[in-house]
Design brief:
The structure is a single chain. The chain is of the alpha/beta class and 382 residues long. It has two domains: 183 residues, FAD/NAD(P)-binding domain (3-Layer(bba) Sandwich); 107 residues, FAD/NAD(P)-binding domain, CATH 3.50.50.60. It has eight helices and 19 strands. Strand 7 and strand 8 form a beta hairpin. Helix 7 crosses helix 8. The longest helix has 27 residues. The structure holds NADP nicotinamide-adenine-dinucleotide phosphate. One of its GO terms (cellular component) is cytoplasm.
Length: 382
């Protein structure tokens, strides 16, 4: 682990409060009682963009980037053709490495470990890593993104890594000149299927409806690809094989009829679920597990905790929209800290309570008029 940057002391609160339950001092000699201004959990376009903005605001951000999946979903994407500024497109990993380096250039510290516990109440939040290190911060930006959705069918877990995969760029090469099935009908499925035609003898896209959800340009490209076949109105009910994938059983969604399709590989590309398991019961999530933010802001239901990227976004889920909300989160965190510092300077006993009392009624505030039951400290609108 790299050495932490000493955080600036806006609130003067260097001692953890009673709401932080993680045993930091014992497990984290390197961190000690340092209280950072912001810790960003997650390292996709949202996390790295938040880091760029926070670093340029001299907040010395710490980014908990993840041990294996640093950089997020784009690390397993090939051509990104719609990120502005790249007329010829750019490879996903190249884009993410550039974002990481840009954040580091301004002083962000990237930690390649997984967060295993978040304590988010009170003026000092804690992030515990899987190596036991505890980071403390006045604000958190959650940008943990989403994980691959699974079909949850017979054979899927057993044959995972033995022909069942969620990443064509990682595993496609192993199925050279073999039959490959891709499941899904969105941009991911089409992108995976198109990529896999480089390797497979045949690639079959299995979709539960009779039209693709994917963007028109990608759908047209896929339908014109001679190496790509489609099984419409079909769902996969089981993945079959002893030590490796040998076939899938498909069910016709219109007639209910079942049939086997021989294949060596099944690539699942059926969307994602938000990675909020560390936050359950700690802040407001919606019924699908996405973090609820207030209005157009990145404020969550807990003061000093902000959220950005796919962990919030049901709808757009683009690298560029994630980057945009990452920027917003850094600005929101910076302004919130400034407001807290102003309140502290005014010799306020309890900054959290007083900040809530100072809620502006200004209608231009992005989060005014939201659910009153949500405890949130609002920006001053400066
Ligand atoms: P998505 O758009 O949510 O599509 C998921 C697909 O999986 C849908 O076709 C859905 O079927 C199907 N599906 C969901 N659950 C299923 C189940 N249990 N069994 C069978 N099929 C199931 O997800 P995505 O393709 O991962 O895309 C997510 C976002 O990223 C989108 O905004 C997309 O545009 C973007 N993206 C962009 C690019 C690019 O531009 N290069 C690449 C990848 C992703 P239904 O259609 O019937 O709902």
């Amino acid at each position: 682990m790299t050495q932490p940057i000493q955080a600036l002391n806006i609130l003067g609160a260097q001692t953890p409060t009673s709401t932080s339950s993680a045993p930091a001092a014992e497990t984290s000699p390197a961190e000690g009682d340092t209280v950072h201004q912001v810790v960003i959990v997650g390292s996709g376009p949202a996390g790295y963009t938040a880091a760029i903005y926070a670093a340029r605001a001299e907040m010395n951000p710490i980014v908990i980037a993840g041990a294996l999946d640093a950089g997020g979903a784009l690390m397993t994407t090939t051509d990104v053709e719609n990120y502005p500024g790249f007329a010829e497109g750019i490879q996903g990993p190249e884009l993410m490495t550039a974002m990481q380096e840009q954040a580091e250039r301004f002083g962000a510290e990237i930690i390649f470990e997984d967060a295993v516990d978040l304590q988010i109440e009170g003026p000092v939040k804690t992030v515990t890593l899987d190596d036991g290190t505890v980071y403390r911060a006045k604000t958190l930006i959650i940008s943990t993104g989403s994980a691959y959705r699974k079909l949850g069918i017979d054979g899927e877990s057993r044959l995972s890594g033995k022909g069942v995969s969620w990443c064509a760029t990682c595993d496609g090469f192993f199925f050279k000149d073999q039959d490959i099935v891709v499941v899904g009908g969105g941009d991911s499925a089409v992108e995976e299927a198109t990529f896999l035609t480089r390797f497979g003898k045949n690639v079959t896209l299995v979709h539960r409806r009779d039209e693709l959800r994917a963007s028109k340009i990608m759908a047209r490209r896929a339908e014109a690809d001679p190496k790509l076949q489609f099984q419409w109105n079909s769902e996969v009910v089981s993945i079959n094989g002893i030590d490796k994938v040998e076939s899938v059983t498909l069910r016709d969604t219109l007639t209910g009829e079942e049939r086997d399709l021989p294949t060596s590989a099944v690539f699942e590309a059926i969307g994602h679920i938000p990675r909020t398991e560390l936050l359950e019961g700690k802040l407001e999530l919606d019924e699908q597990g996405y973090i609820v933010v207030q209005g157009r802001s990145t404020y969550t239901s807990v003061a000093g905790v902000f959220a950005a990227g796919d962990v919030v976004d049901h709808t757009y889920r683009q690298a560029v929209t994630a980057a945009g909300t990452g920027c917003q989160a850094a600005l929101d965190a910076e302004r919130w800290l400034t407001d807290q510092a102003a309140l502290t300077t005014a010799d306020v006993q309890d900054p959290m309570t007083t900040a809530a009392e100072a809620v502006p009624t200004d209608e231009s505030n992005p989060i005014s008029g939201t659910d009153e039951s949500v405890s949130v400290t609002l920006p001053s609108g400066r």
